[in-house]
Recover the amino acids of this structure.
């Protein structure tokens, strides 16, 4: 992992999207070419020897991190989308958010049995979205090799949530927020 100071480019926005929530704005990191390159390189280099052939990212900010990581790994990218956004037959999974519930979908033919998949997103908070995406991957017969994030909100214990269903899978984060 590089020694890049990612945290210095993340801005806390209090009371967004609702009172009591501190939103982590990562857009300053994306506009900085050196930071964005380091983010993609750090994640891709960490998983380079895992045989990853597909990367999946959840709508919407997973679409910002996932495709360049997939490119760097020489893998395909699969979007996990909100309901009604994918035009063919889908698998769906509902999950709890920090402040509500949601559903995520992937095309039923997005993965092949035996695919080695990396779940990538900008942030892991409660772990609900990532867990739902991983369950969708495994419904197809593919295998989740690991999870990668820019930010982890450790105080919400997301690793415990993932470990319940995917205990042996690696969770890799670049910034841990306590």
């Amino acid at each position: 992992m590089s020694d890049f100071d990612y945290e210095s480019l993340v801005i806390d926005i209090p009371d967004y999207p609702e009172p009591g929530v501190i939103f982590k704005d990562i857009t300053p990191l994306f506009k900085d070419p050196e930071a964005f390159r380091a983010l993609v390189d750090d994640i891709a280099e960490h998983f380079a020897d895992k045989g990853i052939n597909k990367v999946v990212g959840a709508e919407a900010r997973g679409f910002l991190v996932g495709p360049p990581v997939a490119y760097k790994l020489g893998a395909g990218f699969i979007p996990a989308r909100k309901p009604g956004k994918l035009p063919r037959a889908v698998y769906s999974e509902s999950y709890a958010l920090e402040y509500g519930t949601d559903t995520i979908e992937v095309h039923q033919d997005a993965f092949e049995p035996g695919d080695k998949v990396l779940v990538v997103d900008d942030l892991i908070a409660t772990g609900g979205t990532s867990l739902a995406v991983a369950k969708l991957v495994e419904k197809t017969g593919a295998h989740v090799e690991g999870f990668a994030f820019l930010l982890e909100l450790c105080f919400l214990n997301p690793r415990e949530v993932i470990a319940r269903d995917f205990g042996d899978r690696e969770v890799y984060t670049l910034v841990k927020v306590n």
